[in-house]
Amino acid sequence: MEKIKTWAQSNKERLVHFLVLVVITVICTVFLDFGNIGGEANFIHYLMAGYLVFALFIPVFFILLFGSLIDALPYVGYIIFLILTTITLWHISGMFVSIKSKKIKPKHKPKQFVLSLIPFIIIFLILAFIISQMGILAKPAIYLYPEEDSFVDVKLNINGKITVTKPPYGDGWNVFATKEGTINGGYDYLFWEAIPYNLGMRSDLPSEGWVVKYEDLESWFDVNLIKLGLNEKEKGQFMEYWLKKLPESDYYEIKLLSDEFMAENMDLIVSPQPDTVIRLNFYFKPHNEKIDLVEPEIKPPQRTGFVVVEWGGILDDGLF
Q: Closest Cα partner for 166 from 157, 175, 158?
């Protein structure tokens, strides 16, 4: 007990910094509710998210690498996450103390600060590489067209971390959908985004695909999205989002994620069971030169009975 008191006394300033960081971290985490953000982010969201990226990127690194372990053994995962968070915040508090310390000459303080940042920089670069390998499942939009106005349950079985939903997802969506496709009186579709845990996703891509000039993307979408099963409203909302999302490049490689891949990594569970399910999740990769791909045969689906439609995509932006 005496040793603990002695240690606490000698580390009093560092403990104060540590507790302040803990309080700020808890406030930011609770405010942002990263498990289920609804709606658009504002400046406060970005400010708090920026702090958490700095303060928690080592624990987040653990989550991204071992997300499936956390899902399988949540208590073990949470304990490891808390331990890593404590270590990280303790290290940051030590950085503040070292900067203010009178024992270190002023001319040596910048060097001391830089040295203390080196572990963070190394891990941050590794994390940035891992994230770039993952990509983001961007704006999958789910449309519901029951044969009669009714309540519909929709659940996502994602091999990854859901980052954004609208309306809020909770344990799943239970929504009222009209046969015209209006959800809960005001939504055209259910919206979600996620970071996948599957680092080998690119090896699971089909060999077939399309190569489209950047200036031809609009006309390509206009023709082929209808052939692939979207109606005019769905096509228009897809194009409105993705034509702004895709950065300018000479060519784009476009592939469709396979049904097998989606069932394994981003399964969609709807009750009552729909009669028709159309899931178009694209992989987009920009290229400076034209590449050769065998184009797949398009078989237009028949939309009958209770219809569920989903579109979305992953942008491989050249970071990896």
A: 175
32-35, long-range: CB < 8 A, 24+ apart: 34/163, 35/162
The Cα–Cα gap between 37 and 162 comes to: 9
Is the whole model's pTM more than 0.85, yes or no? no
Residue 37 has pLDDT above 80, yes or no: no
Nearest by Cα to 235 from 309, 178, 167: 309
Higher pLDDT, 70 or 176: 176
Check: CB of residue 246 under 8 Å from CB of residue 287: no
Residue 176 banded pLDDT, cuts 50, 70, 90: very high
Tokens of 292: 């050769």
Question: CA torsion sign, 111 to 117 to 123 to 126?
Answer: negative
Cβ-count burial of 105 within 10 angstroms (0-12 exposed, 13-18 middle, 19+ buried)? Answer: exposed
